[in-house]
TrEMBL record:
It is a multi-pass membrane protein. One of its GO terms (biological process) is adaptive immune response. GO terms for molecular function: lysophosphatidic acid receptor activity. InterPro entries: GPCR_Rhodpsn (IPR000276), GPCR_Rhodpsn_7TM (IPR017452). Residues 46-306 form the G-protein coupled receptors family 1 profile domain. It comes from Mola mola (Ocean sunfish). This is G-protein coupled receptors family 1 profile domain-containing protein. Belongs to the G-protein coupled receptor 1 family.
C-alpha cells in the first residue's frame, strides 16, 4: 500500500514488473504521523497569530497584506485537515467517509499551489514597487490585488477540486478486518488516460512558471539595488532589508516546493512506464514521503515570509512586545514600590516614637 497525495494508487499497478519490486517505503507512516502532528501545532499557532495581526493589529492594509491574508486562509484550510491525516497514518484506516477524503486531497493541492501563486504575487508586487515604483502605482492597488486573489482562487480550485473528487475510498482486508484507504487509489486506467496530462499542466502552470517569475523578479530587484540612484533613494539599511527579504523568500520557496514537484515528474515517468526498473521505482518511493513532508511544512514557514516582507508587521510585533514588556515592568514594580513605601512609613513611625517618647533621664 503506497500513498500519493497527488496521484494516489501506486499499489494499483499490478504489472509483473511492479509486483516483483520490493517495496521499501514502510517508514512513511510514522514519518507522516510525526511530521504532520508538528506541522499542525506549529502551523495552527503561527497562522492564527498572523491572521490576528492582519485583522486586529494592522491599521494600514495594502496590496501586499491582501496577498498575505489569502495565503493565511490557504494555510489554515489545509492545517485543519491534518488531524484526520494523522489519524489515518497511525491507524491506516479512513473512517471519515468518501467526501472528507476527497476534500482533504483537494485542500492539499489548494494549499500547495495556492501558496506558490500567492508567494509569486508577493514577489511580483515587490518587483513592481522597487524596479518600477512610479509606473506601477496605477497597478499596485488593493482593488487590483483583490481581483488577482480571486483569479488565483478560481485557477487553483478549478485544478484541485476535480483531482480530489476523482478519488474514491477503497476497502481492503487488513489483519482479518476491513480497512478503508484514502489518498492511494487512483486506478491505472485513470492514470494512463488523463492523469499524466494533468501532471504536465500542473507542473508547467503551477510550478515552473511561478518559479521562473520568482527568480526573474528577484534578480531584477537585486540589479536595481546595485544602481547608485537606488542607494541614494533608499539608503544602505533599506537595501539590506530588501536583500534579506529576497533571500528568505526564495529559500523557503525552493526548499518547500522544488523537491516535491521534481519528484512528481519522476513519479509520472515511472507510472507511464517511460522510466522502468525496480531501482528507479525504489528511489522515487523513498524520496516521495520526505519531499511531501517538506512541502507540507510550508504552512509553518509562510509566517516567516510575512515578517520579513512587511515592515508594518514587524513594527506591529515590536509594538506588542514593548507593550508586554511595559506591563511586566508595571506588574513587578508595583509590589516593589508598595513594599518600599510601607518600609519607609514604618521607619518614620519608629523614628517618631523614639523622638517623642524617649526617656529624659537617658
Amino acid at each position: 500500500m503506497v500513498d500519493s497525495f497527488f496521484i494516489p494508487g501506486w499499489a494499483d499497478n499490478s504489472s509483473a514488473n511492479s509486483s516483483a519490486c520490493v517495496k521499501n517505503d514502510g517508514f512513511k507512516y510514522p514519518l507522516y504521523s510525526t511530521v504532520f502532528s508538528i506541522v499542525f501545532v506549529v502551523g495552527l499557532i503561527t497562522n492564527v497569530m498572523a491572521i490576528y495581526i492582519f485583522t486586529c493589529s494592522l491599521k494600514l492594509r495594502n496590496e501586499t497584506t491582501t496577498y498575505m491574508m489569502n495565503l493565511v486562509v490557504s494555510d489554515l484550510l489545509f492545517v485543519f485537515t491534518l488531524p484526520l491525516r494523522v489519524f489515518y497514518f497511525i491507524n491506516q484506516n479512513w473512517p471519515f467517509g468518501s467526501m472528507l477524503c476527497k476534500v482533504s486531497v483537494s485542500l492539499f493541492h489548494t494549499n500547495m499551489y495556492g501558496s506558490i501563486f500567492f508567494l509569486t504575487c508577493i514577489s511580483v508586487d515587490r518587483f513592481l514597487a522597487i524596479v518600477h515604483p512610479f509606473r506601477s502605482r496605477a497597478l499596485r492597488t488593493k482593488r487590483n490585488a483583490k481581483i488577482v486573489c480571486v483569479a488565483v482562487w478560481v485557477l487553483v480550485l478549478s485544478g484541485s477540486l476535480p483531482t480530489g473528487f476523482m478519488l474514491e475510498t477503497t476497502s481492503r482486508e487488513k489483519n482479518k478486518n476491513n480497512a478503508t484507504f484514502c489518498f492511494e487509489n487512483f486506478s491505472s486506467k485513470q492514470w494512463k488516460s488523463h492523469l499524466s496530462k494533468v501532471v504536465i499542466f500542473i507542473e508547467i502552470v503551477g510550478f515552473v512558471i511561478p518559479l521562473l517569475l520568482n527568480v526573474c523578479c528577484s534578480i531584477m530587484v537585486l540589479q536595481t539595488l546595485r544602481c547608485p540612484q537606488t542607494i541614494s533613494r533608499g539608503g544602505k539599511l533599506n537595501k539590506t532589508k530588501i536583500l534579506r527579504m529576497i533571500i528568505v523568500h526564495i529559500s523557503i520557496f525552493c526548499f518547500c516546493f522544488i523537491p516535491y514537484n521534481v519528484n512528481l515528474v519522476f513519479y509520472a515517468l515511472v507510472r507511464t512506464k517511460t522510466l522502468k526498473g525496480c531501482f528507479v521505482e525504489s528511489v522515487v518511493r523513498t524520496i516521495y514521503p520526505i519531499a511531501l513532508c517538506i512541502a507540507v511544512s510550508n504552512c509553518c514557514f509562510d509566517p516567516i515570509i510575512y515578517y520579513f516582507t512587511s515592515e508594518t508587521i514587524q513594527n506591529s510585533i515590536k509594538k506588542k512586545k514593548s507593550q508586554i514588556d511595559r506591563s511586566y515592568e508595571v506588574k513587578f514594580s508595583e509590589p516593589l514600590q508598595s513594599e518600599t513605601s510601607s518600609n519607609l512609613q514604618c521607619n518614620l513611625r519608629n523614628l517618631k516614637a523614639k523622638v517623642f517618647h524617649s526617656d529624659p533621664s537617658e
